[in-house]
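Posted in: Structural Biology > Protein-Ligand Complexes

Title: Requesting predicted complex, zinc ion in pocket

I'd be grateful if someone could produce the 3D structure tokens for the following input. Sequence and ligand are given below.
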Amino acid sequence: MCELQINTKSKSYFITIGYDILHTLPQIINSLSPKITKILIITDTNVAVNYLDEVKSKLTDQFDVLDFVIPSGEQSKSMMMFEKCSSFALSSQLDRNSLIIALGGGVVGDLAGFVAATYMRGIRFIQVPTTLLAHDSAVGGKVAINLPLGKNVVGAFYQPEHVLYHLNFLETLPLSEMRSGFAEISKEAMLSSKEEVNWLMEHVKQITDLERNILKQILKMGVQIKNNIVSTDEKEKGIRAFLNLGHTLGHALEAHLGYSVISHGDGVAFGTLFALYVSENLFGVDLHFDEIRKWYNQLGFPLFTNIDSAEVIKLMKHDKKNIGNSIRFILLKKFGQAELHEIKQEKIHTLLNNFLD
Ligand code: ADP
Ligand code: ZN
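-- Reply #1 --
Done. Output follows.
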């Protein structure tokens, strides 16, 4: 088991990562002060089928435990679901000494975290993430729901009491979800150091059937890098924006091809490759583009070649932050050194056409 301490301005908490660690959950809850009276587990339908009973069974002999199961998927991060959850909490008489457990991926974490942040002006919550991608929301304290016109528009910064990554839960995660999480972790490694990128390339040759120890290391790496970036950003504003590496093209591809055709992670992986390609071309640096492209291919990330580049450029230009005829890109001078650049649309168009060839 590995334990990482996260320090924020408002509080400090631990993330424990390991196999067979679910039995520590009651101890963690018992260590909280004031004492927890009632627990509400918020989870989604897919996770509930697999794990709700297991989690409840660890708690029911010591606590009064309730659960609220939401439909799986991004649509559940809504005002309506927020109201349903909060109303359930109230009708179940949750009070200031109650605890919310977010059992699930990013959707559950965001919604349950936001309910915890706002219910009676804030009650405590613990995250039990069940996806690889959720490492991202486990650090940084961002919780939110969506409005019909915008993602994560209504939210807060609210830290959990503890994050318990019981990795056995990741064993039923669909392959596409594993890939999505890995796209973000390899992106984080590129923002951090060449050593970490090399380590991943050497140890991760496929995403299915990852060795237990390797999966644990990967998650630890993701959490540590995210934590470094977030804590540096508290002082040095803006570094957090580097986490958008690969997302300029990624988001445009999602919009262009349709969210049901391409997953966020596959879009990010493709966008990250493009950022490496642009960086090599503009700065004359070596970022092992060819090698990484082969690696991503081997890991099962699709290469999208049949793309209308003019259309994709138009979509990339939509970002409000773009000025005039340029598009903002996060690029790399080397692994561990990212920079924000404004690049002329024509230049990007040429590079994109060459990249797609
Ligand atoms: P994230 O934002 O972390 O990718 P989501 O909450 O969007 O997570 O979950 C992605 C999908 O995976 C959802 O359909 C969810 O129900 C499902 N899911 C989450 N965890 C597991 C798991 N451990 N096993 C099987 N399916 C899971
Ligand atoms: Zn992302």
